[in-house]
Structures are given as structure tokens and as C-alpha cells.
Amino acid sequence: MSTLIFPDVRIASLEWYLVSNTQTFTSPLSGVTQTLELPGAKWRASIGIKDLEAADSRLMSAFLVKLRGQSGRFSITDFRHPTPAGAASGTPVVAGAGQTGNALLTGGWTPSIIGILLAGDYIQVGDELKMVVDDANSDATGAATLNIEPPLRNSPADASTIITDHPKCIMALENKQVGWPTRSPLLSSFTINCLEAL
Question: Considering the entire predicted model, what is its pTM?
């Protein structure tokens, strides 16, 4: 099944989370807590849509049914920050193969820009959505190191395109069942809970 695009309907509310994959153990004897961080942190969203009229309601209903429960995939943007606050100018790409972890070497930016991306800006690398967690500057060659979260799960190919405008996350529904309450005069509301599909 192909990845669907979230319908263009009016969003009433959005809750956006990063769910870290950690295990915590507290000793019953000493009270000391140990925490283990594991790979697999993922984005989670809860999208509230209220009082859609007939045409948009049918569009949204068809989208949800087409997902076939948790088997379908769709792409969405964090609607609060669809574009970066930083300059984000140039044609950014991954600079070097074999990269993993929380630091991404990039190139192709407009040279010598302070704040080419700012903390809180999103980027998309392949199918992965990342948040830049520290302000980044481009050097005289247009290179910039981006500190990102969550860490890269897959090593992107050298020269892979970095998307800064409406970067997307691939999601799946958290529940098998979909539905929508409707009230007079035929206004429908939806609550969509979804989790990044790794």
C-alpha cells in the first residue's frame, strides 16, 4: 500500500510528542534509579478535527477507511511549524555516507549564514522526521553540522536531499477501529491518534 497524504481539512487541535524508548529500574534497597536508553524513539500525534461539513467529512472518512486500520501509512507535518524559523536557504544535502546518531553533516546551504536552521526547526531525511535541537550555522563552503533528535535510524546516502519545507513524518493509526461522531446539522468531528511507523 502506498503512503497516503493527510487530507487538507481544518485542524482544530494538535498534540505532538516524542516517545522515547527507555527502561527504568529503581532499586528497592537503595532507591537508586538507573535508566537505559534504547533505539526506537518515535513521534506520536493526536489530531483533533471538529465540525466538518459534508464534503470535508466524506473526505476525512474515506481517508480513515482507506488506511485499513493500522496497516496503512500516511504522511503528516507538525502543523505548528511547517517551515523553519532559520534561513534554510540553499539546496541542502547529506554530506557523507555512513552517518548515524544525533549529528548530521550536511552541505549545499547558502554559505556563511548565522542561523541557517534554528533550534526547534524540523528536517526530513529520507522517511525520517528530525528536530534540530541547537542553532546551526553554515560555513564558507555551505556546510553545516545539525544536532538532531531522535537519532538517525537508517544511514542516509551521501548527497540525499534534506527537506526543510513541510517535512513529513510517516504515521500509522494507533487503533484498529475508526469512527466519527456526527451531530445536527450533520457536522462531523474526528480524533486521530497516530504513531510514527518505523
Answer: 0.90
